[in-house]
């Protein structure tokens, strides 16, 4: 564990609390893509199967994994049941098969070992890299977002961005250790946030509303 | 085992 990763994980935690806060206080999931949230459930469930196989890393690691699985399911409950009327599927139109198909194929080809757990692990890494796409697509379509929603996305983006210095740090402190699947997917994932951060810095942090140029 | 296969990150 290093500081980059710790802050990254805390930022990931923060993003979830920001999202929960947004939904609970506005009593609405308007502006949130349920497709992206469903993909996160799939990401966590497929990646954290090692909770049940005895490959224990640390209490911190296990608690975080359980939290991510539990909170992502809870968010789906809020969106699908509790605040269902505020969920507008007509603007959440990204086709999930464009994501699920290619990531499944990639996982079957590029994995560390052709076993059930390893293929699912690789799948979850590829899936996480692009899971934000329905959300970004929705943002692009509506051209605007509530400020709290942009804070949620910023926290997620910071989480992903900080994993990169974490890998560089680990490379030098762990004798050239590198996890190519996580690194390549992680760089792709971080790159997807670049456009968003441009608008976030130039508008939201200057006190303006998040609005995309027409 | 290379670090990559430990999967010790979240």
UniProtKB/TrEMBL annotation, chain A:
The keyword Transmembrane applies. The chain crosses the membrane at residues 59-77, 98-114, 120-139, 151-169, 181-201. It is a multi-pass membrane protein. GO terms for cellular component: endoplasmic reticulum membrane. GO terms for biological process: protein retention in ER lumen; protein transport; vesicle-mediated transport. GO terms for molecular function: ER retention sequence binding. InterPro entries: ER_ret_rcpt. Pfam families: ER_lumen_recept. It is found in: Endoplasmic reticulum membrane. Keywords: Endoplasmic reticulum, ER-Golgi transport, Membrane, Protein transport, Receptor, Transmembrane, Transmembrane helix, Transport. Belongs to the ERD2 family. This is ER lumen protein-retaining receptor.
